[in-house]
Amino acid sequence: MPEKKYTVTFQANQKTMLLVQGVVLLVIGILLCCSVSLGQIVNVVLGIALLLGGVVNLVACFMEHKSVIRTEGVFASALIAMGILCFVGNLFPVDSLIMMFIIVIGAIALVDGVLGLLPAVRRKRVPTLVEAGVGAVLFALGMCLWFIPEFARFASLVLGIGFILLAIMLFVSVYILNSGKRVK
Question: How far is it, in rounded angstroms, from Cα 38 to Cα 43?
Answer without folding.
Answer: 9
